[in-house]
Every structure is written in C-alpha cells, then in structure tokens.
Design goal:
Elements (H helix, E strand, L loop, with lengths): L1 H14 L14 H23 L2 H8 L3 H8 L2 H21 L7 H18 L1 H8 L11 H22 L7 H22 L4 H14 L14
Helix pairs in contact: 2-3, 2-5, 2-7, 3-4, 4-5, 5-6, 5-7, 5-8, 6-9, 6-10, 8-9, 9-10
Length: 224
C-alpha cells in the first residue's frame, strides 16, 4: 500500500497531476434551488427537446441528486410544464403590452419588435415554445398562445375596420394572418439572424401595412 502510494505521488509530481477535488454543492434556499433547476432544464430542453432531456442530466448539470429534482417538480413532465408556462406568459405579456394606444401602424411595429426581441433575448425559451409540446401546461401550446395574441389584435383591427368602412367581421382573419406572419418569420429568424432585428420588423410592417401592391422600396420603422 505504501509503495503504491509513493509511486502515485511520484507520478503526480512528475506530471503535475493532482486528484480531482470533489465539486462542493452550493447551499441554496428552496426558492433559489427551484429557480436554478428551471434555468438548467430550460437550457437542456432547448438543446435536446423533451424526449432527449432526462432528469439524470438535469440533476447532473445542477450538481444535485435526482431526488432533489423530483422533490421540486415531481418528474420531467412537471419541470417541463413549468418552463413552458413561464415562457408562454413572458411572450404573451410582451406582445399584449404593445397593443394599447397609438397609431395602428405604430402598434404593429411595436408588436413585431416585441416578438423579435423575445426571440433575440430568449432563444432557449422560443426554441422550446415552437416545438410541439408533449406535455400539457396551464397556458396551452404555442398555437394557443398565438390565438390569444390574435384575439387582442382582432379587437384593435375591428375598430379600425369599422372606422374606415370595412367589414369588421374580417378582422379575425386579418389578425390571424398578421400574427402568423410575424411568428413564422420569428422562427426563421431564430436561426438566420440576418438582417438585424429592426430591419426584419420594418419589412414585416412594410408587407402588412402597405400590401404587396404598395411596398416601400426602403421601409423603416417610425417609432425611433
């Protein structure tokens, strides 16, 4: 035993190697630990999807045991549902907050910028939302979220249509078209990342506001 220990010490001295020190677990409050696990899970679900992620890897990345994850969320489905609910509410709040007051074009510009800003700043969250969720959450799926946003847009368009002599019954159709236009472009832009955010928003508003027959050659935002 002593001979083996001396030989190991000589090898470490010669190579500079040292035994790996165990990683100390950080003491956290229950709230802090829950938030840490959500952050780790959010990153992992965005990277691998629901099926590719596991409780084992969530626990490993958070440097805790699996029972700690089960204690807080009950399992992978539980932590995934909380992650989806939080991201859904965050995006919905951002979008709806832009749709109050001001000129309709300004609201359209602000809504486009709000969604693209979310894509830019919360890439992991958006990747999770646009996947087909295999787990029920209290706020529903991404399509449910888009329908909620479209409902807000429909209310605004209905007033504008009526004021301008258009059939306000078509407001729902146009609302779905506008929200779908921005959302699908956001999914594409998540990976393309060109042009820059405001330029993408300007082109979206250009198409939506002017129509194909009245496209501006060099659209720009009017809110800056």
């Amino acid at each position: 035993m002593q001979v083996a220990a001396r030989r190991r010490a000589k090898r470490e001295t010669a190579t500079g190697a040292r035994p790996a020190a165990p990683v100390a677990r950080v003491r956290m409050s229950g709230t802090e630990r829950r938030q840490q696990l959500l952050n780790v899970a959010r990153e992992l679900f965005a990277e691998k999807g629901f099926d590719g992620a596991s409780i084992e890897e969530i626990a490993h990345r958070a440097n805790v045991s699996k029972p700690v994850v089960y204690e807080h969320f009950g399992g992978k489905e539980g932590i995934y549902a909380v992650v989806v609910d939080r991201e859904t509410q965050l995006l919905l709040d951002r979008m709806v907050s832009t749709l109050h007051g001001g000129h309709p074009r300004a609201m359209l510009e602000q809504a486009a910028v709000a969604l693209l800003s979310y894509v830019e700043e919360s890439q992991d969250g958006f990747r999770i939302l646009v996947r087909d969720s295999p787990v029920a959450s209290s706020t529903g799926t991404f399509s449910t979220l888009l329908n909620d946003i479209a409902g807000q847009v429909e209310h605004i368009l209905g007033k504008q249509f009526a004021a301008r002599g258009y059939d306000d019954k078509l407001a729902a159709l146009y609302a779905q078209a506008l929200v779908g236009l921005v959302a699908l472009t956001g999914q594409w832009w998540l990976d393309a990342r060109k042009p820059k955010r405001d330029e993408v928003a300007a082109h979206l508003v250009n198409l939506a506001w002017n129509g194909l027959s009245h496209l501006e050659h060099k659209p720009r935002l009017h809110i800056h």
